[in-house]
Task: inverse folding
């Protein structure tokens, strides 16, 4: 690769060029690499589009609408006659602005309702799944508790029976005990 980028020393370059004159296979490889480098140098990256955020888009449109409105207002003011026609124009503009603002408010309300419904659908389902998981864990806990209680009761009964049997054996052995002295002959 150093040869292709002219990064090798002249003696090494001369030796490699001599080899390339004799070796068709290496010469073909170097030619292919040069063609690839040329194609890469000519390649143009496609222009990347940056996704825009809906709020940023709405803000830009709002600013553009304000600029257009201001220009229209200024042109209208400059072109309007200086008479009582101003009140009529003011009323008409007020009516149009009110209608536009009402339409925009309705659109925002619809968007908010859609967002709220989607959010409730997504997180309402998550809450239901969490409650179901908690119910399963609680059911397992109750089953484990019942099983443990049953096992403890069984151990207690066996212990009680064992202690009663041991007591009976002690009493029986105590009744058969002989005094410390020599055995008595009857």
Result:
């Amino acid at each position: 690769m150093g040869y292709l980028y002219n990064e090798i020393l002249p003696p090494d370059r001369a030796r490699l060029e001599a080899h390339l004159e004799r070796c068709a296979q290496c010469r073909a490889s170097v030619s292919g690499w040069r063609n690839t480098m040329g194609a890469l140098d000519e390649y143009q990256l496609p222009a990347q589009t940056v996704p825009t955020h809906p709020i940023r888009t709405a803000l830009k449109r709002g600013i553009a609408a304000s600029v257009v409105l201001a220009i229209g207002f200024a042109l209208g003011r400059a072109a309007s006659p200086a008479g009582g026609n101003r009140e009529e124009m003011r009323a008409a503009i007020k009516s149009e602005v009110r209608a536009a603002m009402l339409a925009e408010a309705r659109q925002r309300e619809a968007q908010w309702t859609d967002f709220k419904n989607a959010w409730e659908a997504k997180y309402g389902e998550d809450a239901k799944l969490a409650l179901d998981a908690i119910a399963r864990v609680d059911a397992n806990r109750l089953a484990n508790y019942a099983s443990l209680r049953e096992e403890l009761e069984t151990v207690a009964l066996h212990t009680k029976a064992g202690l009663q049997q041991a007591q009976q054996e002690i009493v029986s052995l105590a009744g058969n005990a002989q005094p410390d002295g020599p055995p008595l002959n009857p």
Remarks:
- The radius of gyration is 49 Å.
